């Protein structure tokens, strides 16, 4: 293949400044991707900065430069951090544009050529900032994925965007940005070493763009940058959640300071700059929403500093920016928490959504957020003043601070409803509140009101024209002819679709649904109550409740789901359980006829056992809790479709259903019943005359679990070979083998132990303890 020569082959228009510290294991891949560039390396100004690296990084760089790019600049300095290293390298830049890639990442082979080609395009020289596409590189598998939250700005191809018109086209990372070197020098910009542990890229970029009244960003999706997500979590971004300065220093010297500087320069904070800061700030609260949150360790001393800083930051961000934020998925709850908890806005509802109906009890749920004290409420049904059938006030907390409250009310759905809040009638709506729209695109207007794609909108600001008007006459003629061709090919596409895997799956699903509705299957499973513990194990509340139901209520069409490979299958089959193999076609048909799903587990594969895109189901779900809940599980279970949840003690019941708790459940869903397996334990205890046994029941640790064996989900896990070497196992085994424990047992006439499971020969085998002497297990 003959390489096409560039017309200005001698020009060096692009510089790359690369700070290096402790990246010896990643450098070979980075340097190899640099050597593989389709743009000759002599067309690039390469500046490496060895930032006092403790490994062989500097040596590897010099060896590579000597072989591949002798024109490169290699600087060596004492360790000062990435910001100081970039600033040192920036002083040597003479090229028109400069970027700051990280040496643990990888370039696509056409990366720099695509950037240079974009710069040569007509009208694209006016772009103040060039943004290339960041793809995520999985360090463990080598897989590259396009899942970055800001990927949407690349979906319309190469273009130049005016940020004042399109403030959602923000860009934060300096490794995937190209700046005008002359502008950086004129503004006296430098990376701030004091901004730690991250954000220095966004800080630099914001101040760079803030100098322009109408900053323009060039979007280059063809230039792909592979950002390495380290498997060990050692990168600055990944490890930053464990650093106190992320919550105390960074919000003040990063977010707050950059907003103040932008306002001083422009007289206001443009919406694009608000979006940029809000995007990064929201990750704190989004992280705190996770079930296993990296922010759970925060103590009160950090919380007391963090929240006042956020309040000061949001003084520079408009309520409309928060309320309409759509750059990354953000729950309405989080947006309202920012508005109410920090800005003190909308402390009383302007509308009330009716979000759920309980058809069995003929009730409807009303929910709204508020700040301060509970508003004065007046509920009327059929004109009569009533008290809610069920109600609670839920506290909504983020990072250790209650930001707002949610009122949850169940009302009769059998008459006309009217609600008055603080003396004012509030309009009622059906369903959740729609997201507000503050920027209405032409495509949205035409699609919703005219059913047509309508005129196109040019990103740079030229007048809009219809698509037909943009096409020359001959092209329009070809387009009309093309419609006929496409129509004639429609039957081909239809025929091919019928042969596609998706179409085959749809036909198989349709046949399975038809079987589930057949008379033969209906006789067995109509109006089924389906019980289940884990897919690979019974021995929990569902097993014991099923046994009770079969004995006390034989008229109930009850079934028990379990994997046929489970060690419990033969035992339950011998007892007469009506078993269905988990994951089988019989299981699917049973679920299609189930009216009540009952389980001691609430994992996703339990509450959503069928693909909701393929099958339509309707059942009530009862959560027979596995044990007595001590910690806050609201992040995990609030989103689960739980109709009934059982508890074992008054305090536990109050922790779920009581006021000012984080759970969304009221005393409608939460019942104080005790656990079915506790009833059985009590009976066994009363029947047994031996009270000398000492039962040890350790709790488990999520970090000790191996990978999920079944890709579709389930509780089967691979075994960890290093389990017995873990501190958890070592501490438990040390306790069980201790002389002190033996002495205490002998003093209380306890002659034998039952030890916790410490190893197993397979993922489903019954574990045994390796360290017990014979006869003591």
Structural notes for this entry:
This protein is of the alpha/beta class and 777 residues long. The chain is built from 26 helices and 28 strands. The strands form five sheets. Strands 1, 2, 3, 4, 5, 6, 7, 8, 9 and 10 form a ten-stranded mixed sheet that branches. A seven-stranded parallel sheet has the order 22-21-20-23-24-25-26, with helices on both faces. Helix 21 (604-607) links the parallel strand 23 and strand 24 (620-623). Helix 1 (27-35) packs parallel to helix 2, helix 8 (249-266) packs parallel to helix 10 (300-314) and helix 16 packs across helix 20. The radius of gyration is 32 Å and the shape is globular.
Question: Topology, please?
Answer:
Layout: E1 14-20, H1 27-35, E2 44-51, H2 57-68, E3 73-77, H3 82-90, E4 97-99, E5 106-107, H4 111-120, E6 129-138, E7 144-145, E8 159-162, E9 177-180, H5 181-187, H6 200-210, E10 216-229, H7 236-239, H8 249-266, H9 271-289, H10 300-314, H11 319-323, H12 332-341, E11 352-358, E12 363-370, E13 377-381, E14 384-386, E15 390-398, E16 401-412, E17 417-421, E18 424-425, E19 428-430, H13 442-449, H14 467-470, H15 473-499, H16 501-517, H17 519-525, E20 528-532, H18 541-552, E21 558-562, H19 569-575, E22 579-581, H20 585-592, E23 594-599, H21 604-607, E24 620-623, H22 634-637, E25 644-647, H23 650-657, E26 670-672, H24 676-687, E27 693-695, H25 727-736, H26 739-747, E28 752-754
Parallel strand pairs: 1-2, 1-4, 2-3, 6-10, 11-19, 20-21, 20-23, 21-22, 23-24, 24-25, 25-26, 27-28
Antiparallel strand pairs: 4-9, 5-10, 6-7, 6-9, 8-10, 11-12, 12-16, 13-14, 13-17, 15-16, 17-18
Helix pairs in contact: 1-2, 6-8, 8-9, 8-10, 16-20, 18-24
